[in-house]
């Protein structure tokens, strides 16, 4: 692994740690590559690899759906469940950030932090 990749990985981990530090209600945060690989995990989950692949597939499917509806570039996906809400956003050219919070948390502050 090159120094550049190590530096990028460490920078990514530092950003995730900072996000979690300022948002204690986040129950999971993961950065995923376009190929569905787990690039960094804020709060590790047993199924990080499966979550990473699913998030990548979801972004591909929703991006295609959005394009067919002529909505323009996809900004974020929000999945509202009974217990948790998950927000998925682009974190870079080839990366995706997925953040989960309890369902009753107001998303405004989380959206600001994610930006």
Topology:
Blueprint: H1 3-22, E1 28-33, E2 38-41, H2 48-68, E3 76-80, E4 84-90, E5 95-102, H3 107-114
Antiparallel strand pairs: 1-2, 1-5, 3-4, 4-5
Structure description:
The protein is of the alpha+beta class. The mean pLDDT is 84. The chain has a five-stranded antiparallel beta sheet. A hairpin with a 4-residue loop joins β1 (28-33) and β2. It contains three helices and five strands; from the N terminus they run αββαβββα. It has helices spanning 3-22, 48-68, 107-114; strands at 28-33, 38-41, 76-80, 84-90, 95-102. The chain has one domain (3-114): Dynein light chain 2a, cytoplasmic (Beta-Lactamase, 2-Layer Sandwich). The longest helix is centred in the middle third of the chain and has 21 residues, at 48-68. The termini are far apart. The chain is globular, with a radius of gyration of 14 Å. The protein is 43% helix and 26% strand.
């Amino acid at each position: 692994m090159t120094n550049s990749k190590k530096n990028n990985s460490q920078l990514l981990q530092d950003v995730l740690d900072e996000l979690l530090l300022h948002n204690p209600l986040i129950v999971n945060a993961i950065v995923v590559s376009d190929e569905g690989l787990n690039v960094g995990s804020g709060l590790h989950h047993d199924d990080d690899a499966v979550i990473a692949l699913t998030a990548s597939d979801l972004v591909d499917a929703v991006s295609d759906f959005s394009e067919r509806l002529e909505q323009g570039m996809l900004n974020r996906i929000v999945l509202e469940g009974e217990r948790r809400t998950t927000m998925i956003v682009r974190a870079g050219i080839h990366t995706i950030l997925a953040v989960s919070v309890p369902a009753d948390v107001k998303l405004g502050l989380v959206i600001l932090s994610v930006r």
